[in-house]
Amino acid sequence: MDTLFSPPEFSPADAQTLYRALVDRDPAYEGRALVGVTTTGIFCRLTCPARKPRPENCRWFAGPAAALAAGFRPCRRCHPLGPQADGDPVIGRMLTKLQADPERRWREADVAALGLDPSTVRRAFRRHYGLTFLDLARQTRLRAGVGALAQGAPVIQAQLEAGFDSASGFRAAFADLFGHPPRAMRTHDAGLLADWIDTPLGGMIAVADADSLHLLEFVDGKGLATELTRLSRAAGGRIGLGRAEPIDRVEAELSAYFAGTSADFQVPVTLHGTPFQRRVWTELRRLNPGETISYGALAARLGQPSASRAVARANGANQIAIVIPCHRVIGSDGSLTGYAGGLWRKQALIAVERRLAVGTGADPARAAIRA
Q1: Global pTM?
Q2: Is the pLDDT of residue 13 over 60?
Q3: Which domain holds residue 147?
Q4: Active site residue 326
């Protein structure tokens, strides 16, 4: 049984509101609901330009996983399998501005000067990305500082390249990301090296030693600073900025993945977790690209059908995104459930893999695991 849109501000009784949004092609509902048309078997964004169905022929879904589970096919006009943020004109406009001038120090007054309501922009970015536009702009500038530090630049030079007015502001932003200030990132004697990887879904932080990958997370992912601090502590504080061979390798493999040519991750990984967590993560890697599974079904595969909550906790504790595909786990009703990198990314990753699986018939991702 599929579910209607589930956040608390909506319920099945809101069908009239959702239908009105569909007729009006209201961009405020991008990322908040999809419509399935029973007469055609197709599901769409509410902003789809196609002819509108009658209200009695509409079914409302939280996201593409639920619509697909109910037997609907994605529309070829509005492409609902892509990140739904793509269809939000406010987000599209602001991202274009950010890409054109990544070093700009944005303020709410700058947003207002574009004729946009800063609170509307703030809500739109939080809904789709889990952070505000100003936060995203700040991270974009910080990325330049990370690159400068990784190449051995003094902190003050890295601060200037990142476009921060004050050293304290740069240190605070850096500490938010890495869990400790830049001065503590000693490259020359580091046991682990951290560096930034750009992907179509945003920046990622990769941490590796000379032999294997220890962490791969989106820079705005929940708990990233905590994970980095934990790794640094385990390494005796010997974590620095720079490149190790596994980071180069996973960057190349991610490039092939997003290009739709391969989901075969061969980079060796070190798993930091309990024996049960490592069993869950290993089982996840046996799933085929494009395949999804519920927490209960994953627990059953492990021979512990009553351990679905423990499986969910292990899934949330995964520190190596995409390579260990925790995004392939969905709710038992087909809905997309929590993902540290944001549900919009989970949706996008599932879409990438479905296209990849159809195009290449790729085998399940495999890699050498050192526990």
Answers
A1: 0.62
A2: no
A3: 82-166
A4: yes
